[in-house]
What we know:
The protein is of the alpha+beta class. It has helices at about 10-30, 45-50, 50-55, 80-90, 135-155, 210-220, 255-260, 285-295, 325-340, 350-360, 370-375, 395-400; strands spanning about 35, 40-45, 60-65, 70-75, 95-105, 120-130, 160-165, 175-180, 185-190, 220-225, 240-255, 265, 275, 275-285, 295-300, 300, 315, 345, 365-370, 380-385, 390. It has 12 helices and 21 strands. The strands form 5 sheets. Strands 1, 5, 6, 7, 8, 9, 10, 11 and 14 form a 9-stranded mixed β-sheet that branches. Strands 18-17-19-20-21 form a 5-stranded mixed β-sheet, with helices on both faces.
Amino acid sequence: QTAAGIYSWLPLGYRVLKKIEQIVREEMDATGAQEILMPTIQPAELWQESGRYDDYGKEMLRITDRHERGLLYGPTHEEIVTDIFRNSVKSYRDLPQNLYQIHWKFRDEVRPRFGVMRGREFFMKDNYSFDIDAESARHSYNKMFVSYLRTYARMGLKPIPMQADSGAIGGDMSHEFIVLANTGESAVYCDSAWLDTDALALEIDFENDLQPIVDKWTELYAATDDKHDPENCPIDAANLFTGRGIEVGHIFYFGTKYSVAMGATVSDDQGKDVPVEMGSYGIGVSRLVGAIIEANYDENGIVWPESVAPFKVGLMNLRSGDDACDTVCEKLYADLNKAGVEALYDERDERAGVKFAEMDLIGLPWQVAVGPRGVKAGTVEIKRRGGEREEISAESALARLV
Ligand code: 5CA
């Protein structure tokens, strides 16, 4: 922590952040959305146009430049993207559009807490859809809904979409995506059938009607504490799962709220100017680093899902400086690198016990330990994080990891 709610990213955490970012990017690209990059510093005028400048309150960090012009550090980007849209898109023929960025936001939260889970400066994927009418906007919303299910599942998480209030963003349709974790901020009540869902089993063609998938994923009961009413719960006690969860994403459909206020119109097929229908969609990329840890740990430390682990393998030289151990380690490390397997090599002059404990703590999916006894017998020790140790040859270890 560099200042309250403001973080620097050190090597291991930064690698995880980049892995998460890349999964988010791939899943966004798969929906046909296009990546852009908008400034973090925004002019106050755009927010005066939308009417949110005064409403947003103290969470917005307001800045004045040397010419006394009002600026702010963006807490979200509806205004900027609407301005970009109105300057560049004029015809219904150029719709639909879906633009995303992965960038820093700042919200001056009263109580930043739980580390990167509720920061003031945080990394978010935000995207914005533009459609000619409500029906097509609904399809854009559904695309994001389905894409989010896949995105979180690829990170080893079980996402539960829940109806939500749209708060400061506004609008009339909104879902939060919650992942289960014991230390989550909100209490979650849901049908225990949620625990058996698997979003990666979905066959998706984003051009098809996605409403049936959305309906299927919203028919099971799920609510956070502010919406759950024990008196009127549709699930009987035996099938009700009660736990805690973390909000890792939020999607909104708000129609013409910003396009009317800011004059973002296109000409329709009759040549008439109509305001575009919009939605916005957020994923808490830096929050996910914390959320994935909270959902995946045991008494010895973190248990990273392989898709987001900072490295796939931790290679421990249990007797650094011993020629035989050094040779086996260095060859294995070079071979892993050559094969494109990300490996962390612990060659410090530390006791074996310390190395094992720290390797468990950082939670890489695989561990390989090379010690003098094994080297003499032609073996190394391999184990999955949390699994059993096995003694095999260095070549077999390499084969298993590639
Ligand atoms: N403009 C909309 C969508 S682009 C928006 O800003 N939505 S949001 O406010 O719900 O934020 C999107 C996601 O960012 C949240 O679901 C959450 O996962 C993450 N997030 C929000 N506030 C913070 C924070 N203070 N620290 C870390 N992550 C946050």
